[in-house]
Design a protein that fits this description.
By secondary structure, the chain is of the alpha/beta class. 47% of the residues lie in helices and 15% in strands. The strands form 2 sheets. The protein has a 7-stranded parallel sheet, with helices on both faces. A 4-stranded mixed sheet has the order 9-8-10-11, with helices on one face. Helix 5 links the parallel strand 5 and strand 6. Helix 6 runs parallel beside helix 11. Bound molecules: nicotinamide-adenine-dinucleotide and magnesium ion.
Length: 395
């Protein structure tokens, strides 16, 4: 029985994880659920999944949850940063699903890595920010990190065992690999007239053609910043060089990414676009369990198509690729700027096309210092946020 902590339990990945646990109750249990402020959702999750601990990051939300939970349920309600770090490091816990959105996921995810837990990584932002430090912490503690992000999960599944066992440090070339082909649908604006992008609304940006996801990642998919963050995530997970990583637009989201070998073989992982597949894969690896996802029907799919990314349409993608080449300082600045610009867009304070402009301005103007510790990373993240907020105020 694997006892799991679900960081970000009230979100989209949280819901999919709980549904896979519910399908496989003999092997997995939701020991603890963690969320930020949403008491209604957490209360209903507690009633359904009966965890031992419910942790609310927001202290007021924790108090309200305590009052509203029926005493008969026996759920311990906690709050506070140290309590959260203790929870993910607890001896009662085997596996941590890291599915908090954004930079807020960094410290709890890293705490789980340092405690040597099996970490199922959905929170790509933590790797984008802390890259080298994250991978080093993994090696120091012996934590097993498995990629939940569908593309990285697909790549992982298409890699040889020797590489799978050596995440973060593998040598792609000596394993016979020439390229990692990171696929992306191109999002809802792939074919929209370029001059219409500036007037796109948050509702239009969040209407992904294939995936149902949280708001932030949905906007990131519309700008392809999501693919940019995934490019950086792949760089760290698979120790990939620039010339080994390629982005391929594949509008149907049936192939979730591919690995190209030097003998000409390409190995792809396919499936319906449903996060329960990569989540179930990570939960049970190296075994397989039921996820509840419908089998892929090739006759319904019909066609698979592929395009080169248009960097003119998706400037955020090229910003991320350039930042990745510059290093961890630039990717931390970009990630923080993007969280601010996306939040401002969602609040109707910015045009869709301003997102990339603010992100680029932060990359150009925030002075970068070299990052030796997590405190340095958080300081640089804060600096970039402040600059981005000033730009939002002027927009
Ligand atoms: P979501 O917005 O649906 O849920 C976010 C969760 O994070 C919520 O449970 C919320 O309570 C929690 N949260 C937010 N701020 C927090 C804070 N300050 N402290 C603690 N918890 C906080 O997001 P999502 O779509 O489930 O995405 C979660 C993560 O998974 C993101 O990093 C995203 O990039 C990644 N991811 C998501 C998908 C997907 O299909 N949704 C796919 C791949 C990767
Ligand atoms: Mg993805």
């Amino acid at each position: 029985m694997q006892k799991m902590v679900i960081l970000g339990a009230t979100g989209s990945i949280g819901a999919s994880t709980l549904s896979v646990i519910a399908k496989n109750p003999e092997s997995f249990s939701a020991y603890a659920l963690v969320a930020n402020t949403n008491v209604d959702k957490m209360l209903s999750l507690c009633l359904t999944h009966k965890p031992e601990v419910a942790h609310m990051v927001d202290a007021k939300a924790a108090t309200e949850l305590k009052q509203r939970l029926p005493a008969t349920l026996n759920v311990e309600v906690t709050t506070g940063e140290d309590q959260l770090f203790d929870l993910v490091s607890s001896a009662n816990v085997d596996t941590v699903m890291a599915a908090i959105v954004g930079a807020a996921g960094l410290l709890p995810t890293l705490a789980a890595v340092k405690a040597g837990k099996r970490v199922l990584l959905a929170n790509k932002e933590s790797l984008v920010m802390s890259g080298r430090l994250f991978i080093d912490a993994m090696q120091a503690s012996g934590a097993q990190v498995l990629p939940v992000d569908s593309e990285h999960n697909a790549i992982f599944q298409a890699l040889p065992d020797s590489v799978q066992q050596n995440i973060g440090f593998c040598e792609l070339e000596s394993a016979g690999i020439s390229h990692i082909l990171l696929t992306g649908s191109g999002g809802p604006f792939l074919n929209s007239p370029l001059d219409s992008l500036s007037s796109m609304t948050p509702a239009q940006a969040c209407k992904h053609p294939n995936w149902s996801m949280g708001q932030k990642i949905s906007v990131d998919s519309a700008s392809m910043m999501n693919k940019g963050l995934e490019y950086i995530e792949a760089r760290w997970l698979f120790n990939a060089k620039r010339e080994q990583l390629k982005v391929v637009i594949h509008p149907q989201s049936v192939i979730h990414s591919m690995v190209q070998y030097k003998d000409g073989s390409v190995i792809a992982q396919l499936g319906n676009p449903d996060m329960r597949t990569p989540i179930a894969h990570c939960m049970s690896f190296p075994e397989r369990i039921r996820s509840g996802v419908e089998p892929l029907d090739f006759f319904t799919v019909g066609q698979l198509s592929f395009l080169e990314p248009d960097f003119n349409r998706f400037p955020c993608l090229s910003l991320a690729i350039e930042a990745c080449a510059q290093g961890q300082e630039a990717t931390t600045v970009l990630n923080a700027a993007n969280e601010i610009s996306v939040a401002a867009f969602l609040q109707n304070k910015l045009k869709f096309t301003d997102i990339s402009k603010i992100n680029e301005a932060c990359l150009n103007y925030v002075p970068v210092t070299s990052l030796g510790s997590i405190d340095d990373i958080i300081a640089l993240d804060n600096q970039s946020r402040r600059y981005a907020l000033e730009m939002v105020a002027k927009a």
